[in-house]
Design a protein that fits this description.
Blueprint: E1 20-26, E2 32-40, E3 44-48, E4 55-58, E5 62-68, E6 71-76, E7 85-90, H1 94-107
Antiparallel strand pairs: 1-2, 1-7, 2-3, 3-4, 5-6, 6-7
């Protein structure tokens, strides 16, 4: 799993905003790495943290995404600002992030196969059998 920062971020945003979500970045063992605000725009996911510039993942560069209970995760491609990797975020509104992202992808005619993440007993997120490359209509 990718780590996005090394410090905690506290933002006064209430956790009922339509496109912004309080998240905690976690590693593949579920250890908390830091917190921030995940924003979904028309074209990209943006992670806002206090000590770093915003981290951006364009939807066209996402390979797959999913959620399970309070965990939202996605795989980014090598053209993303972070390079390729799997990123996981604990969020009480993980399903809402997933649904909004799915809606935005459909509005932008971006096809990525998505499904709910399944967690193993160790807290590990297993590989999903999903498309590796976003498909855009021809």
């Amino acid at each position: 799993m990718g780590s996005c920062w090394s410090c905690l971020y506290r933002d006064p945003i209430r956790d009922n905003h339509l496109t912004k979500f309080k998240v905690i970045n976690v590693d593949d063992e579920g250890n908390e790495l830091g917190s921030g605000i995940m924003e979904l725009t028309q074209t990209e996911l943006i992670l806002h943290t206090r000590k770093r510039d915003a981290i951006r993942w364009p939807y066209l560069c996402l390979r797959r995404y999913g959620y399970d209970s309070n965990l939202f995760s996605f795989e980014s491609g090598r053209r993303c600002q972070t390079g390729q990797g799997i990123f996981a975020f604990k969020c009480s509104r993980a399903e809402e992030i997933f649904n909004l992202l799915q809606e935005l992808m459909q509005c932008n005619s971006i096809n990525v196969v998505e499904e709910s993440m399944m967690m193993s007993r160790s807290g590990h997120t297993p590989e999903m059998d999903m498309s590796r490359t976003p498909q855009t209509p021809t």
